[in-house]
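Need residues for this backbone.
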């Protein structure tokens, strides 16, 4: 249903370093680089960061949240570790999240601008 998403960032190069490391854990690579935008994806840009100079950090109460699919729990773990190593902060360590209808494994991070990003997979057991 959704073709691509984008988030605003205050410092394009800082965010590029963060997202290159973090998204690589999910198989997304930098595919497009322009003066004010960078696109990441597998075969075409699915995730964009866009320079918004002077942008204030995204407030935690905004409710903004993007979830990206991971193939394995190991990919979720790698996403989380890369995000923390690259300047992000934890918003929920990797682990099983039991839910009414499904059991899923996820990790939640906050990028340097306050954007909340999740990686999720649905283990069979």
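Answer:
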């Amino acid at each position: 249903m959704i073709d691509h998403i984008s988030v605003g960032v205050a410092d394009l190069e800082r965010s590029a370093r963060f997202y290159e490391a973090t998204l690589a854990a999910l198989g997304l690579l930098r595919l497009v680089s322009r003066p004010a935008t960078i696109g990441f994806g597998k075969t075409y840009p699915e995730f964009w960061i866009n320079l918004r100079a002077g942008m204030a950090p995204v407030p935690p109460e905004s409710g903004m949240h993007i979830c990206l699919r991971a193939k394995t729990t190991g990919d979720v773990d790698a996403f989380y570790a890369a995000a923390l190593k690259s300047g992000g902060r934890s918003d929920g360590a990797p682990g099983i999240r039991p839910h009414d209808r499904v059991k899923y494994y996820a990790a939640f991070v906050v990028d340097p601008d306050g954007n909340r990003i999740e990686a999720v997979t649905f283990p069979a057991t």
